[in-house]
Structures are given as C-alpha cells and as structure tokens.
Amino acid sequence: MEESSTIEQVYRGTFVHSTPQTPLLILEDALLGVNTHGTIAFIGEGKHVKRLSQDFKFSLSDVKQMAQHEFFMPGMVDTHIHAPQYSYAGTALDLPLLQWLNKYTFPVEAHFADLKFAQQIYNQVVKRTLRNGTTTACYFATIHTDASLLLGQIANDLGQRALVGKVCMDRNDSAKTYKETSQESQEETLRFIKELLEKKYPRVSPVVTPRFALSCTEPLLGQLGAIAKNNNIHIQSHISETVDEVNVVKELFPDSKSYTDVYNKHNLLTDKTVMAHGCYLSDEELTLFRQTGASLAHCPNSNVSLCSGLLDVRNVLKHKVKIGLGTDVAGGYSASILDAARRALETSKVLTIQNPGYKTLTFEEVFRLATLGGSQALSLDKQTGNFEVGKDFDALRVNVAAPGGPIDLIKDEHPKVLLEKFLNLGDDRNIVEVFVAGKKVVPFTEKTQE
Ligand SMILES: [Zn+2]
Q: Which residues form the Amidohydrolase-related domain (predicted)?
C-alpha cells in the first residue's frame, strides 16, 4: 500500500449523514477511517473491524470508540454570510432591507478599510462559526481588497473551508463614501482573485461578488461575469429578497424580462453561482436556475427578521434547483446553521398554516439542506457534504449529553431521536470536536486561541 493512503484516524460508533437519494442515513456501530490527506478512506461496519484493519493496515488499538450518546455528522455549510456584519449581529433588526442597508450596513462596512478592525471582527466571526459547526462558509467581505484578503488568511489559518468575496458596487447613492468606480471594482476584483490564488491556501477560494443588481451598473455586471468565466471561479450575489427590491430592479433594468434575467444576461448564472434568498422568484425563473445550474441560499432567519418574505423551499426542490442554508448574518441575527435549520422548519410550518395542504419540510430534509445541500449549492459536493469515501473528512463530533449542555436524555434514545434533539435543542456545547479535511479545528489549539 502506498504511503499516500496511510490511515491516520479510525472512529467506531454512530454516523449520520445524507445522500442525494436519502435525507437521513443512520449508520450504527460503523467504522470510519481517515487517511493522512484528511480524506475518508473507508466506511464499514464495526463487526468487520478485523478485516478492515488488515485491508487498510491500522492497528485495533488505534480505533477510537465513541459513547452511546455521541455521533458524527457532516460539518455544516453556511452558504451565505456577511463577515463584516458580524460586528452588529443581534442588533439593528427594525428596518426593511433597503433602509436597513443605508442606515446600518453601509456605514459599518465602510469601516473595514481599517485592517486592525477587520482583523478583530474576521477573527471573531471565523472562530464563532467554526465553534457552531460551520466547516464551510461562503463569505461576503466588503469592497476593500486588503481586508478581504485578510479574511481569506484568517479562514485558512483557523482551518475553515471558505469561499471569500470582495464585494463589488459601483452604484450607491445613499452612502457616497461606500462605493467604487466601475474601473476600480473591476481592477480590484482581479487583484483580489490573483493575490488570493497566489497564497495557494488549500481550502480557501475567491468568489466573484456583485453585491446585488441594485448596487451594480450593467457594464460592471458584464465585466464580473467575464472575470468569473475567464478564471472559472464561483459567483455569489442576492436575488429577489424583498418586494421593494424586485420593483426597483424592474425600474433600473427595463429591458430585462426578470430579476433572474438581469444576472443571466451578464453570464452571472453558472453551475458555480449561489444566490441568496429568492423569495419572490417565479417558476420560470426557477427553471432558469435549474438550466444554468445556479443555486439558492435559503436564509430564513434574515427573511423573517427583516420582514422580507418566506421562501417556498418545497417549490425550489420541485424545480430541482440546488439549495442550502445560510445565516445571512447580520440580517439574520444568528451565526449558527443550527438556527438556520430551525428557522427553515418554522418557515415551512408558517407556509403550512397559510395553506394546510402544503407539504411541510421534515427535520431529515432540513438536516440535508444544512450539510449535503449546502455543499451542492456551493458546487463543493465532490469535496464535502457527507461521509462518502474519497471526500474530505469534514465532521462534527456531537455529544448530545455534554456536561452542562442544553439537552437532557430521558432514556436510551435511538440515534434518530438524538439527532432530532440536537437539531432542535443543541448548541456549541454539544459540538465537542470539529474536523475540516481530517484536521481538528475545534477545540482551538494554543496557537489559534489568541
Ligand atoms: Zn446577504
């Protein structure tokens, strides 16, 4: 056996994950091996431990046995989060989107020209999301290239898988100090991509980030589409979050058939595109999403907190559009995908109250959205999202009965009950270890503690 496939870690116990066919698979007394590259080398049954140890050349004494009330689940994916807005998360939720941006967001984001401030907030947000079990995050930064590069460095140093976007906006009449010229936006995007790629971080990549149609001119949208295409990189933006926003887009882009058409026209809908929200997309627009391979980030906390709308996830799934969950900090006040999962269920139940015939999402489906769905939405499902052999070991070790934690066990609950309790009641106290590509990133080491 080659050196490259040496087994480094073996765990025995309960594993829960999703596949494209099944929202929840529970593997009891399973055995999972991770090699020195951090990828999953095998997953088998505990009773075959002897044969597996011979086939994969590990010693039985290296097997780490998990407790009855523990399980491993895939790391969670935050498909949409604004790193700078973490600085006011939990506040400023009293205005609708367009006023909220002017009053709170733009003035705060303008401060990120200050690298010291950026360093503090970006360190806090990456650590907080890692502790909350977010192994992959798709970040908006600000218009500032150097601060955006710093966010990439911090994610890399703390071991989070991340897509990082320098925000582009050449149209902003409400905050004159927080916008770029079209030329600056284009040149700085190119510099950002070049300098981030030159760092050769293994799991941090750039993403082309027009803020949304309202804050970009058509020439800039066209340039950004071309940049993404020429460099074969990801794209992220916002779409159809509120009724007011959709109406302004109609005024600003009278030649476009729909909001989706504005992006599609400028080559911004690809199979590496993730668009946040989509509350008001028509069936025709969803079809365009499916045809182009673009995905949606469902951000239910934000959608309710800013009174934006209710996304009909069932209809998105019916159109076979890829979809994951996003916190949308700080429009969403929580930086936890567990919260996003709860709000996704809640939104689905509100839709059911409004229409009793509605097929409510199940907790198993929401679990898949938080993990595999998110990885699909970010086109990272070859690397992460579930416990398939060959993927990176991005995982959470969950102890449902963690001492001092929020969950009481009543009797010997089945793993499915343990997972449901964790999804509804759990928090970071239950997430005892977090792994990204086989490397333990939580608890923090002395080096990452500072
Ligand atoms: Zn957002």
A: 72-441
Task: At 391, list the tokens.
Answer: 């993927």
CB atoms within 10 A of CB 411: 5
pLDDT-above-90 percentage for the chain = 96
pLDDT in tens, 427-438: 999 999 999 999
Name the token pair of 23.
């929202």
Residue with tokens 């009950």: 417
Residue 68 class from Cβ within 10 Å (0-12 exposed, 13-18 middle, 19+ buried)? middle
pTM listed for this prediction: 0.98
> How many angstroms does the Cα of residue 202 sit away from the middle of ligand 1?
26
Check: CB of residue 213 under 8 Å from CB of residue 253: yes
**In angstroms, what is the span from residue 97 Cα to ligand 1's centroid?**
10
**∠ CA(336), CA(27), CA(338), 5° rounding?**
10
**In angstroms, rounded to a whole number, what is the distance separating the alpha carbons of residues 52 and 431?**
28
Q: Which residues, including other chains, have CB under 8 Å from residue 257's CB and lie 6 or more apart?
A: none
Helix residue ranges per DSSP H, 163-252: 182-198, 218-231, 243-252
Neighbours of ion ligand 1 (CB under 5 A): 276, 328
- Smallest CA-to-CA distance from 348 within 310, 299, 387, 301 is with 310
Average pLDDT of the chain is 96
**Would you state the pLDDT for residue 169?**
97
Query: Dihedrals φ, ψ of 117, to 5°?
Result: -65, -45
Q: How far is the CA of 311 from the centre of ligand 1 (A)?
A: 15
Which amino acid, 418?
L
2 pLDDT exceeds 70? no
Q: Concatenated DSSP letters for 244-303?
A: HHHHHHHHH-TT-SSHHHHHHHTT--STTEEEEE-TT--HHHHHHHHHHT-EEEE-HHHH
Distance from Cα 78 to the centre of ligand 1, integer Å: 12
Q: Separation of 238 CA from ligand 1 center, angstroms? A: 6
d(CA 367, CA 388): 16
> How much is the pLDDT for 80?
98
Contact 242, 279 (CB under 8 A): yes
Alpha-carbon span 197 to 191, nearest angstrom = 10
